[in-house]
Amino acid sequence: MSRGSSRKTADPAPIAPLRPSPLQPAPQPSADTPPLNEALYLRLNPDVATAVATGTFRSGAEHYQRFGRAEGRPTMAPASVVRDRVVITADPDHLAEKPRAPAGNIDHIKISPAGGIYAVGWVNDSQDRLDSIDLYFSSWSISFSAASIARVRRPDAEASIGLSAPHNCGFWGFLYAARRLPANICSAVVRLKSGAELQAMVTVDTVEDDELRNIALSGLALAKYTGAPYFAAVQSVDTAIAAQLIDFNQMLTRRAVNAPYIEFFGRGNAGYKGSIIVCLFGKIEYMFAQQAMFARQPGIGDYEFIYVCNSPESAELLLREARLASLIYGLDVTVILLNANAGFAAANNLAAKYARSSRLLFTNPDVFPRDENWAEKHSTIVADLPAAQTALFGAPLYYDDGSLMHGGMYFELDRAPGFSQGRRKDTAILRVEHYGKGAPPGTPEFLRSRIVPAVTGAFMSMARDWFERLEGFSEDYIFGHYEDADLCLKSLEAGRPARLHDAKLWHLEGKGSQRQPQHEGGAVVNRWLFTKNWLDLVQDGLTGPAPPHPALDITEAK
Amino acid sequence: MKILLVSLYHPELVRGGAQQIAYELFEGLRQVEGVEPVLLAGADHTAPAMFKSGARITGFDGRPNEFLFLSQGYDHVWDKSPSVALAESFKEFLERLRPDVVHFHHFLNFGIDYLTLTRRVLPEAKIVFTAHEFLAICAASGHMRRLTDGSLCDRASAVRCHQCMPAFPPEHFFMREMWMKAHLAAVDVFTVPSRFMIPHYVRWGLDETKFVQVTNGMKADAVPIRAAAGGRRNRFGFFGQLVDVKGLHVLLQAVDLLRAQGFTDFTVEVNGDNIRFASPERRAGIEAFLAAEAARPADQRNVVCNGSYHHDQLRARMARVDWVVVPSIWWEIFCLVISEAWSFGRPVIAANAGGPAERVTDDGDGLLFELGDAGALAATMHRACTEDGLWDRLAQGITPPPSREEMVQGYMDVYRASVLAPV
């Protein structure tokens, strides 16, 4: 049977009309044609019966004359009825029936000046699988294959089409073209495996590059999934999307660290023992509080502070507070202002270039000295221990409630079996855990100096030459998270695993920045990236709190 | 000896106990031979006429050694001034003056970090800090009264403070405590007007050996008023700010209770203002009570509101009452009203906490009742009205309140001991 398409279907192939044209008389049977048994024809062709009942055709005979004959529709019952078996009365593959246009929608298409392309929509492909999303613009086009598209749940769509079981109707695609793409109207086609299509004309939104990144990452963070979000979110970008987002973010990062504003406050001593590098994310009060706490430390004059500000809207406030802090506390402070959020890694890498010492202390803004002689203690550790033991080290960190927050880090591997569409697609994700999280403050096994698989970037003391040899923090990670563990594993691979030494600090974890949904989305991509980069190494003896990897001898500090 | 007194306000611009004491001390120190006091008092948007274009520190009304610190944009969350120019002006002021002692009466309008700035600019000077309440410990106006249930707080902590002010997470209060202590570490001597404050600060983590109690003193110019001969002692007076923590509502509830018990042979006179600083609920309650009272026939009224008063009017107001009621629902640090009542020979009925509990001897020179308990206050007032000879006995037990000279001597002892102390 030929069925009319919806308004959104655009197929150049001829299609049967919805109704017979009132100007065109219904065909009459020819003299040599046996008369059609109307009742039998309708019984054998129930779809025709429905079409007649709804007025599409005046009779079965009309349908037969116009289409049924050409389609080879049965007109007579078999001589003997075969019981308990399917009887093929016509070749279904040769029926001229046009596949139904799927229910769905292209919600929006956003394009940024640097060539970021973001498309969001949904389609009911619960029976007929999605094949591609094709976007046609006036001078260019792009086709997202189903394999490159993230699939998510759309409860609103499920409700509207009456799906009885959850299904990932939603989709979104992201691609970084790295060139300006003119666009205002898009002819979008959602194509299913059967050839069914949904076509729509969509007005394109043009948004700034960083806004497009934030929109895409927020969408990733806020999406609903049919499985556990922790796994499903990572799995959803385990296509081309994660790599595209990383490329796009790298472009933004390069742009953010380009031409920073730098101002120095203080005396400008030469010969600092260390450079305390703090990456600020909005909360300026952490800067003056941190200065007040560190200023009380004996020996703190041997250190300079470098504050790098990822929040341009806070620039004026930060400069004022730096000037005040210099006046009140007398510490040497360099302020580096970026024109946009470059993320943790790039901001710290940039600040390291402006350091005036051979020791870099990467410190979160919500980290404060807990030991009264912390600065002297740190200086002594660096001066007294062999260089290999201080190339990269962290310290015990404490919550405000007094319990331990961090005594080094180790890795765990989370697995989730996947049975989508009857096919196995398991997900493995590396997870970073802290030794001693929540433990009583004096728990000795977490405090002693020792080798650990990794330490947190909340506080990380590194020899500058070692940091430079490892090429600093990887700027592949979006915003923040995992680049600290990444650097530690690079250090381990290069022969100097991370260490923990006893120079205690407070860490008000997570309070030094204002996390937005895009940061959570970035963390999903980072989780994917970290797993991709380090799964093999971690699986090879670095899993669990007591990993057997030969590079680690965590039972005895070397 | 050159002494710089840093006061949160000038008492002639903004009234208040802390600035009044700072000014009394300033005037008293002027009488001490060999001492040169200088006053630097804060002024803020409440005194816009004092501000001069581009000025951060100015003189005050042509008076020698009195200066105004023109505070702007004070950050009440972190208790700091955001202005670089103000900090530079303060630094230059210190460098020019080079006092031997810098005595802070509060840090409001300047900033707690000015203690550290002072130490940095004047490493040899002695820094004295007088705590007029608990603002360093308690972000809830320094009252140490729990906003959750109105109970008195004897221990600040990150979680407990968060419970009082849930808009801020526990970590904020942890940081605030470290922030405050980092700056208070610059102080050589802490003074408090009442002994009960010392355990609070010591429990919070400050060094007990740095604390000295120096009483608040007043210029002794009051002559006791002769009490009316014979008659009943049934006239009560409230003196002070009409804000929540002063507890006027407890007194009014006691009035209701007494009337409900059929006892109406008493009067209460309310003296004070600033009801605009009361919470909306408390203000509405007080205003409704006073309006209803004013609507009663004159012979059925028990409560009269006289409004605000100048110090010169105090004698007349005190003459109209037999008892002074201090129904405060917080710790009430010292309570100058008690000194004023005693200077006019009026026994005090006070809540049994903080400074009043330390100063008033129950059944010796006054009466104490359970803090916040209107029923207990009503019973105490009934006793005060009806017990023969009680008023006379308690009035005779009153000792003169500390004089300004006593206070000045107390502070001079602190200054001399700290200046002479080895560095």
What do these coordinates show?
The complex is a heterodimer of chains A (558) and B (423). By secondary structure, chain A is of the alpha+beta class. Chain A contains 16 helices and 23 strands. In chain A, helix 5 crosses helix 16, helix 6 (229-236) crosses helix 16 and helix 8 runs parallel beside helix 9 (315-329). Chain A is elongated. Mean pLDDT of chain A is 87; it is low at 1-27. Chain B is built from 14 helices and 14 strands. Chain B has helices at 17-30, 84-97, 113-121, 158-164, 170-184, 197-204, 248-260, 280-295, 314-319, 336-343, 354-359, 374-386, 390-397, 404-420, and strands spanning 2-7, 36-43, 57-59, 66-70, 101-105, 126-130, 189-192, 211-213, 235-239, 267-271, 303-307, 323-326, 348-351, 366-369. In chain B, helix 2 (84-97) crosses helix 3 (113-121), helix 3 (113-121) runs parallel beside helix 5 and helix 7 (248-260) packs across helix 12. The longest helix of chain B is centred in the last third of the chain and has 17 residues, at 404-420. The A-B interface holds A 285, 288-289, 292-293, 295-296, 320-321, 323-324, 327-330, 366, 368, 400-401, 506, 508, 511 and B 77-78, 80, 82, 84, 87-88, 91, 113, 116-117, 120, 158-159, 169-172, 174-175, 178-179, 182-183, 185.
